[in-house]
Amino acid sequence: MKGLRLVLTPFAPDQSGATGVLYDMGGIIIICDAGGCAGNICGFDEPRWSNHRSAIFSAGLRDMDAILGRDDRLVEKLSMAAKDIEANFVAVIGTPVPAVIATDYKALERMAEKKTGLPVITVEANGMRTYDRGEEEACLALFKKFKQDKDSIKVNEKRVGVLGAVPMELGSVAEKDMIVNNLKAEGYKEVTTYGFGATFDDVLRAGDASLNVAVSPAGIKAAKYLKDTYGTPYEIRMPLGRSIADGIDVKNKKVLVVHQQVYANAVRDKLLEKGALSVDVGSYFMMDKELSAEADVRLEEEDDFVVLTTKGKYDIIMADGILKPLIKDFGGDYINLPHFALSGKQEVV
Amino acid sequence: MAKKAVSYSIEELNKLGKDGIPKALVSGEHLIYNSPASLMFNSPGAEGFGVKRAGLAVPDSVMLIVSPGCCARNTSLISSMPEYENRFFYLLMDETDLVTGRHLKKIPDAIEEIINFLPKKPSAVMICITCVDALLGTDMDRIVRKAEEKCNVHVRPCYMYALTREGRKPPMVHVRQSIYTLLEKRKKNPKSVNLLGFFAGLKDDSEVYDLLKSVGIQNIREIGKCKTYEDFMDMGEANFNLCLYHEARFAANDIQERLGIPYIDITRFYDIERIRKQYAALGQAIGVSFKDEKYYEEAKAAIERVKKEFGELTFTIGESINANSYELALALIRYGFKVSEIYCDPTPEQYVYIRKLSELSPETLIFSNLEPTMLYYDVSKKKCDISLGKDASYYQPESPNVRFNSDIQPYGYRGVTALMNEIYDSLKEVR
Asked: What ipTM describes this predicted complex?
């Protein structure tokens, strides 16, 4: 049945992806919910919460706020908080509640800007889409809102921007260092990872980078926008420095890799270098047709993974361990390839 | 910008009165900070018994969560626990469902599929719905009836409506009522009593059991200690219910109306004088006299042992603790200790304690766990010798901490004894 999950818990939702982009930017982030969505972000989907906190707040909506559409009350709460909390900007992130009552985000943005004097961005997340959609929209909204004056651009040949690298895209927080180190090894001195360490000031001088690298499909739209706006070229690739499938003979084997598409493609390249017969990519998240091979598959339901693995007759499957219980009868090698957006667990491989 | 967490002294709070509680200490009046305490209830299922775990308190039941993906995302924190294996299932909504409500029509078929998937038919299926359906005005009674007819299994709704948290019937009140609607009328057994209020039951050593048995009550039942569905259904034969926690009062009322089982409210205290008075009052209500001296003296000795060994200790108290933070503060102050800070929103009902605290410890500071400026609480300043409650350890990382927030509930004199012993052991360990 469409939508029914008997084994898997749901994956990271769009509001988590949106918040992930803004986490380190020093803004007031309001999750437009009753409490549970913000709790899920801070208590589960955001691994940085336990190390350093960000000003992420729940709007604390109650039934009458939603029924009567009391946006003015939310703006009032925001203005109270803005007096006490230091912030560069405000972000309002949607959830299922504003989706049901059709909140007018543009109006909310204008009202909040007028009341607080701070720039406001909004992301129309609804909790029914996956994290990558929210990440994509938040990234784009951020660059659009804080556009750099073209005259102030001084391209720094040694600076590279990384887009689409929130923790949910990766297997562990440590993989961010892997991306940074590999780009530094390519000769870049300054690596700006938007959504994972980059600051608000980094956004204000986004046009100075000589190159942007989209490491997930969620970063592609922003990369295109920055190219159109500042002329910054971009590449779509995951600088995956580590070795893959150590100790497993992949020669002449049929392999399935399940992850976000850009990560999975990087793994595919490595496996083919090691002599794999064929490598197919599957993903429960956005897939760009231009980056897909013929046999690659966009997964939706939990049964899709079962069908794919049965039909594909793979010798090796590389996927997050959370999918393993779906294919108890699989007789090949199952290699854990953690993806935080699936399992919500950080695992160092 | 001050970058300072907002607080009020108990004296200020008392002067403002229960109708003048400052906005910073009223959760509906400000944005909500995701402190450790707020995450414990705002991150459903992450800690303790939220609606999801509570709904599954019925032995051998399963839960179908019908919601957008985000509402069920962190359920893996619970479903990975062995006792919840194969007990959570999800029917995820999409944008079209919001408009058409078609997800509701799928529920009976989804339940059928779940039953076919499981090796053994569940005793009941709890359908958990969320804020979205609260706003859509979903008629769950009709859906429950349809599902029961189609699948021949008990089905009950659980409303994880965070939007109604401060309403007349918040989610944790409703879920208690919902699970007990499974009970059916049985012939009354004068020697049976139910304890309502908690989902994991009381600690086995609580004197409640001994005292009730000493007056002839043979069967003392709690949902958390029922091993099978039949055990649970035996709760229908009780002569009366003891309602130990205010959130169970709605359920107790409902049971009284439906099954004719009356109930008596009793509260959890940490002040041994209050406990003594309460047992006396309970005895009067049911026409017996409880011999509780032994437990009283035991608790008193545990308090004295801590005082003798460590002197005039200063505590900070959080809200993630098996206690009413204000009642506990007052009890500790009456025992001769000090309380420097409490991290818990006051409510009008707490003023019975706040008034007394204002006389005995006017300088005690009250912080809200939920207020945005708590982001700036200075955790480097040590404010106590020992902190109580899991959330308090976050604010006071340099001090030893007694969490005292287990699922299994402390109660009565033995609760006081257990708390004092844990405080003693924690302080001994760091000495």
From this structure: 0.95
